[in-house]
Automatic annotation (TrEMBL):
This is Inositol-1-monophosphatase. PANTHER family: INOSITOL MONOPHOSPHATASE, INOSITOL-1-MONOPHOSPHATASE-RELATED. Pathway: Polyol metabolism; myo-inositol biosynthesis; myo-inositol from D-glucose 6-phosphate: step 2/2. Its EC number is 3.1.3.25. GO terms for biological process: inositol biosynthetic process; signal transduction. It comes from the Eukaryota.
Length: 294
């Protein structure tokens, strides 16, 4: 098989993202007829399914030999192969979408040999597009079509410690079990004062779209993002964007500096001097071992 032309894939993904954006903004979000998947906080709408159908058929028509993995058609046991693969979340931030909260994106990733190499994340409500091709840098295209290289500050401030950081975490839709306890205890430790053994972060944010969280870390709007339980389609596109912006993705559990894209546990840190020390400081705050993805 010929080597994928990554720039061509990128340009195609931008077109698809815009087409999907029109479907998303013109929809009347409803869970009627689709509802929830594993529980009442794991939502899916008819729009998620319609967007994924449009995206997958467009991809199969243009790149019939490439594989496809999408949130709404994934079956337990499906695995990511080394073949060139589109990894797609038709609506990342479905809960926000249902509530009319505009932190919503379509996340279009492309991986080769299981490595994310192209990413396009588009928020159709704010008309902001984040995109990257491996080795070519990451960019934000704003509603006026002006294109800015990420991170937004060419030389971001050093990462001096968690007590200077704005940190995104997500509650996810699994609300019981050991991982839920690890998360809740870790959130408390991150926020607690130094006198109480905490990290005293500036604050925590739970914004509801993994893809946009990664882009916000790439841009420098957030310093850190930590999550366990999300999936390859939530992170594949944002991963390339973050790495091309000088950021890093490691395991949410301590010790693994090179997680797989389908690891389901992620810690993302923005560009800045002190990145590795900040990761070690964060890992020391993780209150137990996360089991998801193991
Ligand atoms: C969800 C969002 C959310 C994250 C969940 C994801 P979805 O994706 O990314 O931020 O906490 O783990 O499942 O369901 O809106 O596509």
């Amino acid at each position: 098989m010929a080597e994928p032309n990554l720039q061509e894939v990128h340009d195609f993904l931008v077109l698809i993202a815009k087409r999907a954006g029109q479907m998303i903004t013109s929809a009347n979000p409803t869970t009627a007829g689709s509802g929830s998947k594993k529980n009442s906080s794991d939502l899916v709408t008819e729009t998620d399914r319609a967007v994924e159908a449009m995206v997958s058929s467009s991809m199969r028509a243009k790149y019939p030999s490439y594989s496809f993995m999408g949130e709404e058609t994934y079956k337990p046991g499906d695995t990511l192969s080394a073949a060139p693969t589109f990894i797609v979340d038709p609506i990342d931030g479905t809960t926000n979408f249902v509530h009319g909260h505009p932190y919503v994106s379509i996340s279009l990733g492309f991986a080769v040999a299981r490595q994310p190499v192209v990413g396009v994340v588009y928020n159709p409500f704010t008309s902001t597009l984040y995109s990257a091709v491996k080795g070519q840098g990451a960019f934000l295209t704003d509603p006026t079509h002006s294109r800015t290289r990420l991170p937004l500050k060419a030389e971001p401030e050093p990462l001096e410690g968690l007590n200077t950081c704005l940190v995104a975490v997500e509650w996810g839709s699994d609300r019981s079990g050991p991982d839920y306890d690890v998360k809740a205890r870790t959130f408390r430790k991150l926020c607690a004062s130094k006198d109480d053994g905490g990290a005293m972060v500036h604050s925590l944010r739970s914004l509801g779209s993994a893809a946009l969280n990664l882009c916000a870390v790439a841009a420098g709007h957030l310093d850190v993002y930590w999550e366990a339980g999300c999936w390859a389609w939530d992170v594949c596109a944002g991963w390339t964007i973050l790495e091309e912006a000088g950021g890093m993705v490691v395991d949410a559990n301590p010790g693994n500096w090179e997680p797989r894209v389908d690891e389901r546990r992620y810690l993302a840190v923005r560009k800045g001097v002190g990145q590795r020390a900040l990761i070690e400081e964060f890992w020391a705050c993780v209150e137990g071992k996360l089991e998801v993805g193991l």
